[in-house]
Amino acid sequence: METQYVLEKRPRLEKGKRRIDVRERILRDGPRSLADRELVAAILGSGTAGKSVRILSHDVCDAIDFGKQEMNVDKLREMPGLGSAKVCSIAAAIELGRRFYSAKDRRITMPKDVFPLITHFADRKQEHFLCVSLNGAHEVIAIRQVSSGLVNKTVVHPREIFADPITDRACAIVVAHNHPSGNIEPSKEDIDITKRLQEAGDILGIPVLDHLVFCHSSYYSFVEHGLITPYIGE
After folding, report:
1. What CATH number was assigned to the domain covering residues 111-221?
2. pTM for the structure as a whole
3. Distance CA 148, CA 143 (A)
4. What is the C-alpha to C-alpha distance for residues 229 and 220, in angstroms, rounded to an integer?
5. CA distance 15 to 20
6. Phi/psi class of residue 7: alpha, beta or left (left: φ > 0; alpha: ψ in -120 to 50)?
7. Strands 172-178 and 208-214
8. Each residue's pLDDT tens digit, 161-214
């Protein structure tokens, strides 16, 4: 006979006592202590005129396919009692979690491994300069936005780029920035800053493996175009 997991029902509250709110439990015990429906309830914050937040969170959990990478926003919008604001809150929370965990421990062996981790910056109206910290196995430690600038220029300095990788004890980095114009050809400034970063990385023992200039659909790799020599570890 197969054993099934059964969720234990919570005891009824005695009169005069208040059930601890899910948000209080997050602050007290951390978000991992909550069930899926309770996490959704924390995101929703409140129910609607026709449904309590508890019932609404159950309905939302039933509608979410946790096995899929993409959030079906249209499916949520069809749910009675779930307005646009709550749909957006749920979709944004799930997307943020997806981005966080999709990068965790991802091994970088070539430029195309980096591109999916940064494409969500492609549609920004300003340039955003990013730094990917890697461990000795070239697995992603962290992806950070270092700076943002004007429509066609972002100012970066080696000390800003390497500050966090040093703290991470990173063994290498990959840098990248978007071109809002959609033209992924690197500018003279892009080439110059890459040389400066390479020089700084050589001194610090944190080599710059590549620099990607990207838009929504494609990227330019300095390694693939011979502007950076592929790094071979000692």
Report:
1. 3.40.140.10
2. 0.61
3. 15
4. 15
5. 14
6. beta
7. parallel
8. 999 999 999 999 999 999 999 999 999 999 999 999 999 999 999 999 999 999
DSSP result, 115-170? HHHHGGGTT-SS-EEEEEEE-TT-BEEEEEEEEE-SSS-----HHHHHHHHHHHT-
Question: Quick one: 132 exposed, middle or buried, by C-beta within 10 A (0-12, 13-18, 19+)?
Answer: buried
For the chain, the domains span: 22-103, 111-221
The pairing of strands 172-178 and 140-148 is unpaired
Most confident of 14-23, 25-34, 51-60, 221-230: 221-230
Token duo for residue 12: 């009824």
Choose among 201, 206, 195: nearest CA to 168. Answer: 206
Q: What share of the chain is helix, strand, coil (3-state, %, to 5)?
A: 40, 15, 45
Sheet of 140-148, strand order: 140-148, 128-134, 172-178, 208-214, 219-221
Token pair 């011979």 is found at: 226
